[in-house]
Amino acid sequence: MIKYILCVSVLVLLLAILTACGSKAETTTTATNTPVPEPTEIPPLQPGEPNSEPERVLEDSDASIKAYEHRVVSGDNFLNNLYERPFTSEEMEYQPDLNILTVSLVSDDAFFYYTITLDGVDPISGTLTGSYGIEFDRTQTGRGDLLVLVTNPTTEWSMESVVVYGSQDATVGGTKPVVAEEGYDKPGYTSTAALEGDKVAWARIDPGNLAGVQLAISKALLGSEEFAWGAWADGGIQDPSLFDYDDNFGQSEAGSPVKTEDDYPIKAVYSVDNTCRLTYSIVDTSGIPGLCISSQVKDGLHCYCQDTPGAPQERCKIWVCE
Question: The whole model's pTM is what?
Answer without folding.
Answer: 0.81
